[in-house]
Amino acid sequence: MIISDANEIVRARQAAIRRELDRRGIALKAVGFDSGIPYPTLLTYFPQEGAARPVMLPAAAIYALTEGKAIPDDLLSMLLPVGCVIVRVPEGVDLDDTEAQFHEWLAMKGRAHHPGSEAGREIGPGEEAALRARLTAVKAAA
Q: b/e per residue, 131-142, with b = 16+ CB within 10 A?
């Protein structure tokens, strides 16, 4: 069943988020304070390793965690399919800064096509990853 498989993937990712929260020293009590989600409820979504199977995160909890900036966006992005990320849209756009970022991206792309680059005239995997990461930053700024 496809839905069941997706549920297990999300639960595994919730467990991975808990491990990363612990590794980064982000306390669940602080997450509860910032999100408004009670600590006992958070323990059901992000139990300690081996303690219990995570309860599936409802959309309202994801909303609260995102809105309250309680869990870093890169960790919440782990809940999404590969290639999807949570990115904050800036409130104001600095057009000069955005132009500079576009120019830097174009310069990076030009360097990636240089015969002496990672894959010669082709774009290598490291260059592609760097270009995609930079493009994400440019899109977020625009």
A: beebeeebeebe
